[in-house]
Amino acid sequence: MIATQLPTGAARRCQVMGIINVTPDSFSDGGRFLDVDAAVRRGLELIRDGADILDVGGESTRPGAQRVSEADELARVIPVIEGLARSGFPVSVDTMRASVARQAVAAGAVIVNDVSGGLADPEMLPFLAEADVTCVLMHWRAHSTRMDDYCFYDSVVDDVCSELRGRVESALAAGVRAERIVLDPGLGFAKNAAQSWELLASLGRLRDLGFPVLVGASRKRFLAEVTTYGRREPDVPADRDEASDAVATIAAAGGAWGVRVHSVSGAAAASRVAARLRGATVDAGLAGAWAGRR
Predict the structure, then answer these.
(1) Which domains does the chain have, with CATH numbers?
(2) Which amino acids are annotated catalytic?
(3) What's the whole-model pTM score?
(4) CA–CA separation, 224 vs 241, rounded Å?
(5) How do residues 231-264 score in pLDDT, each as one tens digit?
(6) What's the pLDDT tens digit per position in 258-279?
(7) Distance between CA 11 and CA 61 in Å, rounded?
(8) Which residues contact 71 (CB under 8 A, 6 or more apart)?
(9) Which residues contact 36 (CB under 8 A, 6 or more apart)?
């Protein structure tokens, strides 16, 4: 596969990354897309709804989730990536394992989304440098079974920015090119609700790090506090889609490179509205930009 350049120019609208969880235990839709054909159909639905990128993951990172074996993760994601890549759309692999990332790229993935920012596997950053693919480095402190024990900060914004700078320095030292790096503040990962809201309110500070920013708030537990109005039933993740769309609107208007979402139509509209207000392009995004380069 020939590596492709990630468009990050000011005129490029906020990219919508549609989530495909090929897992039995994801907090939002675990088990719905374990079947390869169902996962591929879901990906095509997300594209029709306005997604620019499809993010395929085979390991849940919800609070308390146990890690799966490398073999299980590979069996879940590689056939789905192959099926989606054949359709000509940009595919991202959501993994913390370099071995999974390697096979995913060979299968057609053009982005590696590592929620550990390269910390979980010492082979990840060298692989990213070798493969020369776009990578998302998220702020992360511990695996899901322990991450809630690490939500202590002197200043969550200052500390997250500092730790993300450390991830960038490590990536550059490993040979990853700066133009390949996207940063993610890791909302909900080793952060309580107040800390996640504070990071969302500080998108400008995150952008000041000098790299594109991906915002992943979709259906996360901290949104529950703004979605319980008028309901008697217990909150469930899908109830948070409207709040997720509102966050996507704020992120797109605030200059985020992308938003990662379960339900994409609202985020796709937010991206295009924000682009039009800036006088920017509202083209098909990465799907259009990359379809002819593969």
Answers:
(1) 15-280 (3.20.20.20)
(2) 220, 260
(3) 0.87
(4) 10
(5) 656 677 788 889 999 999 999 999 999 999 999 9
(6) 999 999 999 999 999 999 888 7
(7) 33
(8) none
(9) 79, 80, 83
